[in-house]
Every structure is written in structure tokens, then in C-alpha cells.
Amino acid sequence: MKKQEKLALVESALEDFYGDQQFASSLRESVLYSIHAGGKRIRPFLLLEVLEALQVTIKPAHAQVAAALEMIHTGSLIHDDLPAMDDDDYRRGRLTNHKKFGEAMAILAGDALFLDPYALIAQADLPSQIKVDLIANLSLASGSLGMVAGQVLDMEGEHQHLSLEELQTIHANKTGKLLAYPFQAAAIIAELAPEIQVKLKTVGELIGLAFQVRDDVLDVTASFEEIGKTPQKDLQAEKSTYPALLGLEEAIAFCNQTLDQANAKLEEITQQVPFETESIVKVVESLRINA
Amino acid sequence: MKKQEKLALVESALEDFYGDQQFASSLRESVLYSIHAGGKRIRPFLLLEVLEALQVTIKPAHAQVAAALEMIHTGSLIHDDLPAMDDDDYRRGRLTNHKKFGEAMAILAGDALFLDPYALIAQADLPSQIKVDLIANLSLASGSLGMVAGQVLDMEGEHQHLSLEELQTIHANKTGKLLAYPFQAAAIIAELAPEIQVKLKTVGELIGLAFQVRDDVLDVTASFEEIGKTPQKDLQAEKSTYPALLGLEEAIAFCNQTLDQANAKLEEITQQVPFETESIVKVVESLRINA
């Protein structure tokens, strides 16, 4: 299935859930504003991509699980932008949800996007035991043992010098667990043995880590071009990032080594189950930084 | 099982989920502050009470479902109190969550309480199909088709003259669905026939409605004693409440008639399944207003 077809299935799942429903229309407007804010749908796409690599025939129920994941991601962006949090007026060149609809509505839109996705999964056409596993892991990845804990740790670490380990813990929770969920969810849906599920989840975690390191590196190299001075000097004063902690070259090497580990783990899984890794390796390689 | 034993099971379920876990300790502190803020545990108690009336032997898994419901209720109170919402400094005589921990932490504590409960139910020792049903209905009762929609409608209706029907729609969503959930959840756990599940849910909805009408009536009669003038005059100018729309006497009659309907529905169910309604009728009667 082509990428566009996969993304279309995800859009349908979101549209079916929010488009037709008779509920507070201003809430729906606010929710859909952020759902359609131009996100790249990285997480839902990865879920369907990994499923297909595992030779599972993709069906609408899988897109509903992918859409549920995107809903939680979107809710977290709305709340992150709030005045009490990052206080951002724009995201992707458009007004943030609270600038457009007011703070109260933005809080409630985020709340809805946290509470709704579980019904979407629970009502999907999949075996009950699989749905229970998917729900348990999505909840654990996003709540007080996952994303929300990561946001708290990030907030508290803002004006402190963090160790590499502390930085990794923050990212593993704040962004890593929802980036690993597509791999975890695909493994659950494909009913892989628990041992292989763990390996596939590890691939997701490694990709999530590389994603964050790359993001930090690109931030630095971008600002280097903009401000026209040596980034290393700024880095000393900056808040904790991988380049700040490791130096730029070392951070690039760390990103690429993490991707090597992801590839090695993928290769390992292909020895155990039918797994067409080509498209996943392509995703991995797209994150590699040329030194 | 005595009321205290039931409540102790619910406290254990909450404590087991939040007490032992290694996660951001400040987040846990903020979450537990509101969990232990002196709420009466009406919803979880009702769930276990109805289960027992249906002759189901209560076990810890049922208390976990009840605790999940209380978590969502608590999260909604934290977000309701935020400056952008009702802007309350105190709840039950204690500082509200954001006054104690700051707005950012209060937003995140509420988020955690919306995201976590689904893992708690998913991991409970119950059959998968039952857990899927419980999760679907809790999500629908709380998200953009339930509680959150009700909050939006309530917010939008604040400075408007509402019809009785509009007022009922607001309350049915804002508070009614989470008050009906204990009945719905007990019916799911007891594996009652769908037709009887609907009847039991209706009992919960009627009790939820009476609860709200009673609340409005008590507000008025309290303020009558305080301000020492005829409430009817004030009511004309007040925001929409049942006494404002119906008059005080009529509102009292409406509350009591609604309770009569709940009792009649309970009686109907006893004709179809073993159901010891005594303790539920006691709850119903505790809401009756003596004219």
C-alpha cells in the first residue's frame, strides 16, 4: 500500500470519529483545527508501515489505532503551547489552539484528545485481547509513566545542568514512548511472540532517541548559519541538549550509532519472523546525519 | 461488604497505581494531592454498591475500575479550577491544585489522570471483552461525547437564557454520564443482557439528574437563608438553574419525581434479574427533598 493510501486511511479514521458526531460543535472545531494543523503523521504512518513490513494486511481497524495515537500526540501539542507551559503563539505558521479559540477551549480540546482515543481503539474491529494490550500500552506510554512524566521532568530540568542519562530519561518519556508505540502496537497486532515484541519496541525506542539527537543537532547547525558564530561557544550556556553535553561531532556520531543499533536489531528480528524491513530501514536512514 | 471496606478497596487501587511507581515524583505529589483532597468517592462507591446488589462478589479488579472512574473525575476537577476555567483558589477548604503546584503542573496532573485510568482497567483481572466494554463506555462518557462536551456547552451557556431541555443536555453530559457510569459499569461486569444494561444505565442517569436538580435547589435555599430575601426574585436574574427555570416548588417536585422514576426502573429490573435494590433505594431516597 502506498504512503498516501495509508495516510488517507488515518484521515478517514479521524474524520469518522470527529466529523460526523453530534456534540458541542465549537469543541469539534477546536479539536479538528489542531488535528488538521499540518502534522506529518509520522507516528500513525510508522505503525501502518511496520504492520505491512510484518506482512499484515492493513485494514481500517489498524488505521483507527494509528489515529488514536495521533490524537494523543495532538492533545499534547495543544497543552504544550498553553501560556502556563511553553506559551507559544504559533505552530507550523498557524495560530496555536488557545490563540485561536481561547485558553479554556484549548484545555478542553486537549482533554478530549486524551480521553477519546481509547473508545476509538475499543470499538475497532480487532480481537478483544489485542485491543486490551493496545490500550494498556498506549495509556502507559502517554500518562504518568510516559509522556506526561517526561514533560514534568523536562520542565524541572530547564534551568539545570543535566547528565546524559538524565537527558535520555526525559526524552525517552517525553517523546520516545509515543515514537516507540507504533512498533509496539504493530507487534501486538501481528501477535508476535513477547520476546520479539520487546525487540521491535527497542527499534522504536532507538529511532525515537536518534530522532531527538538529530533534532538537537539540526537546531545547533541551523543557528550556526543564522548567527554566524561558532556553535560550540553558545553550547556551553545553552540548556541541556545532546550537542551541549557531547559536543557537536560526538552528538552526530551518537545519532548515527543509535541508527546502526536500530538496523542491527531489525536484522535480528528478520531471522525470527517474516519481516520486510526495507521501508523501515529507509526511515532509519532518513535520520542519519552526514558528518 | 461494609461501605468502609468498599472505600478501602478503592483507596488501595489508587495507592497501588500511584503510590509505588517510579516516575516524576513532583507529578505524583500533585496527582495524589487532588486524589486525597477529601472527595466523597460517590462514583466508585456506587459502582461497588450496584455490583453487590447484583450479587456479584466484589474483588480488587472491580475496585480498580471504580478507581479509574474516580481518576477521571479528579482530573476534571483540577482542570475546572484552572484560571482559564472557573479560576478557583480553594476546593473543599484546601488550595486548588494549581494554587499549590502551579498552573503547568496542574494541567499535567489532570492530563495524567485522564490518560492513566485506561491502563488501570486494561490491567485489571477481568475478561478482555468486559474490559473493552468498560473502557469504551468510560471514554465515551468522559471525552468529546460526554463530560468534556458538557463543560463546553456549560461554558457557552453561561450568559444565556437556556431552555429546560438545553440545561438538561448540559448536565446530562457534564456530570450525568460519569454519575451514570457506575450503573453502566456494574451492568457490564455482571454481564447482564443488553436490554437490562440499558435500564440500569437509565437509573444512573435519573439519579444524576436528581443530583443536579437537588444541588441547584440547595444552592437557592442556602442563599435564601444567607441573604434574607425571597429567592424567587433573584432567580429571575440568575444563570440558568432548575429553580430559575421552573420556580423553587416545581424544581423540588421535579427532583422528587425523577427519584420516583429511578425507583420504578429499579423495581422493573428486579422482575428480570436477581437484584437486591435496598441499598440503591437508600441512595435514591437520600436525594429526596422534603418540600
Automatic annotation (TrEMBL), chains A, B:
The keyword Magnesium applies. Residues 245-272 form a coiled coil. It catalyses: isopentenyl diphosphate + (2E)-geranyl diphosphate = (2E,6E)-farnesyl diphosphate + diphosphate. CDD domains: Trans_IPPS_HT (cd00685). GO terms for biological process: terpenoid biosynthetic process. It is an enzyme of class 2 (transferase). It comes from the Bacteria. Signal peptide: none annotated. This is Farnesyl diphosphate synthase.
